[in-house]
Every structure is written in structure tokens, then in C-alpha cells.
């Protein structure tokens, strides 16, 4: 299956629950795993395996987290238990607004100009299959970028915090 990035916007009550009890993170992201009949909540953001390449297109780096758009995928403070690929990360409402504003200054053409298969291979960008024609920009990354912008714009408009997790 591989590493996939999911995100969830948090209401004020959900944010307070997470801050009071970080074990709430798992329930918010994955549902009640102890209840076989419980449905897993749908993530509000699902970048699938495009997350690392999209981070690279936003930052020009494999792992560095900058301000603004650079924090959109790997930013935030770790919270909760390690789910296998590290703990979830929490971005407060102010950071979410900054990210949303920064994303609004970018467009698909800007990211398309940064899409360099050889550079992504050299930087070891997950899933590191770029030399096999994986990840057509227009069918994979343009829609992922649109989803990312929509997600942060909605969270900022509702003054919400955000949880991100690589699953």
C-alpha cells in the first residue's frame, strides 16, 4: 500500500479534545479501530502517495519545512502516538491561515515548471519511481495541488486547526 498522507480539519471542540487528550488523534483520523462495525472516517484531504512529490514541488527540498506553503504537508507539531510513519502533526488555526494565504499565491503552472523527474530521483522523493513514468503531472499533481488548496482554504475560512498524518 505504501505511505499516504491524510488530513482532517478540526472544529474548536475537536481541537480542545486533542489538546486535552492526544490519544483522541487516532479516533479522529482513523475512527474506532476496536469496533469492527465502526466505519473509518473519510479523510478530508487524501494526497495518496503524491504527498512527498507535492512537498518537493512546494519547497524545492525533500524534507525541509519552511513557512507558508512549505508547512502544508510536513509542518505542524507532532501529537499523539507514532502510527508507524511518525505521529500525526497538528497545525494551529493561525498557521493554517498562513499556509492558505501562501498556497493562494501559487498556481499549477508554477508547480509544473518545478516538476523535474531527474531532480526528484536525485532527491529520493517518495515513492522514487519517477524514472518509470510515474506521476504524470496533469493527472496526479495538478489535482492533488487543487485538493490541498481547497482543504486549507476551507480550514482557514472556518478558523480551524488541521491534523495531518502519513499512514
Helix/strand layout:
Blueprint: E1 5-10, H1 12-20, H2 24-30, E2 45-48, H3 51-59, E3 77-79, E4 88-91, H4 93-103, H5 108-114, H6 117-122, H7 137-157, E5 161-166
Antiparallel strand pairs: 1-2, 1-5, 3-4, 4-5
Helix pairs in contact: 4-7
Your description of this structure?
There is one protein chain. By secondary structure, this protein is of the alpha+beta class. The protein has a single domain, classed as YfbM-like super family (Hypothetical protein yfbM fold). Helices cover 42% and strands 14% of the residues. It contains seven helices and five strands, in the order E-H-H-E-H-E-E-H-H-H-H-E. A five-stranded antiparallel sheet has the order 2-1-5-4-3, sandwiched between helices. Helix 4 crosses helix 7 (137-157). The N and C termini lie close together (10 Å). The relative contact order is 0.23. The model has no long low-confidence stretch (mean pLDDT 90).
Amino acid at each position: 500500500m505504501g505511505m499516504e498522507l491524510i488530513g482532517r480539519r478540526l472544529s474548536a471542540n475537536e481541537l480542545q479534545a486533542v489538546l486535552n487528550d492526544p490519544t483522541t488523534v487516532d479516533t479522529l483520523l482513523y475512527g474506532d479501530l476496536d469496533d469492527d462495525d465502526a466505519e473509518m472516517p473519510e479523510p478530508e484531504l487524501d494526497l495518496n502517495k503524491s504527498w512527498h512529490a507535492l512537498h518537493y514541488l512546494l519547497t524545492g527540498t525533500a524534507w525541509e519545512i519552511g513557512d507558508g506553503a512549505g508547512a502544508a504537508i510536513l509542518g505542524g507539531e507532532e501529537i499523539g502516538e507514532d502510527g508507524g510513519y511518525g505521529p500525526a502533526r497538528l497545525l494551529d488555526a493561525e498557521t493554517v491561515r498562513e499556509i492558505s494565504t501562501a498556497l493562494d499565491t501559487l498556481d499549477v503552472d508554477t508547480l509544473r515548471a518545478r516538476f523535474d523527474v531527474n531532480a526528484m530521483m536525485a532527491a529520493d522523493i517518495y515513492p522514487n519511481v519517477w524514472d518509470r513514468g510515474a506521476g504524470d503531472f496533469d493527472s496526479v499533481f495538478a489535482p492533488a495541488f487543487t485538493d490541498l488548496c481547497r482543504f486549507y482554504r476551507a480550514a482557514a475560512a472556518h478558523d480551524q486547526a488541521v491534523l495531518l498524518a502519513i499512514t
